[in-house]
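Usage

Read records sequentially. Each one opens with the input sequence:
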Amino acid sequence: MDKILKKNNGLTLIELLVALVLSSILIAALYRTFIGQQKTYAVQEQVVDMQQNVRVAINKMMREIRMAGFGKIRDIVDPEGEIKENINGFTQAITPGTDNITIVGGFKQIRRDNGEPISVISASGNQITLNYATDEFDKPTHRFISIGGVESNVVQSRSGLNLTLKKPLCLPHPEGTPIFKIQAITYNLNGLSLGRDENTSGQPNPQPLAENIDRLEFEYRDTNGDLTANPADIRMVRVTVTAKTSMSDPEFKGGDGYRRREISSNIQVRNMGISP
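and closes with the structure output:
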């Protein structure tokens, strides 16, 4: 009977306390590991968002800066100084600034709602007939057009498929020739927001392109690689964008606790220096 009772004995109080202490230490270690992994994941997610944010912004900027001057804009804007047409306040293919830039070009190919390009049916004198009616050129700040990217003009009025231009066409434009809208686009930094402004509202109205941007800087170089501030001499634009995470990390050793990434790119301006 005594042997049976000994086999059925439970834990002593000391053994129970030791087990509780060991369990608590193990749980605390597991919890701390879990919290650490969660924090690491959150930080990595912020860094990934930051990098993706700035790359999307700089890629769009690169595409449009590279196209500055596209559309034979010299027909209506003269980089040498003779103002032929004021495109929403700008008369140069590139208006340079250290923390901002304005570029003029045929950036937008006009398309239908389904994505199909709108093109020329016939073109003669100062009249163009399109294969689809578009209201893209109906407003005064949206009246600049490039036909096929080889000739630019100003739309005076529209009636259905027909566009009336300010001056007669200089080149023949066969059926199927695409058309482009010429725009003046400004990139600048507004607080911590990288803005893109199409300059069509009569006052600054930048649309946010990327958030949490610390710095935006532009450099301009000529054919010899020398720095220049003369719009007519610009052949390369260097863009530097510095982005930061949306939240600071108190445990991050480095200034204010924000992680930062800097991206720089040299952009060759393809359409500058092309003879009119």
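Summary fields computed downstream for this record:
- The mean pLDDT is 86.
- Helices lie at 2-7, 13-66.
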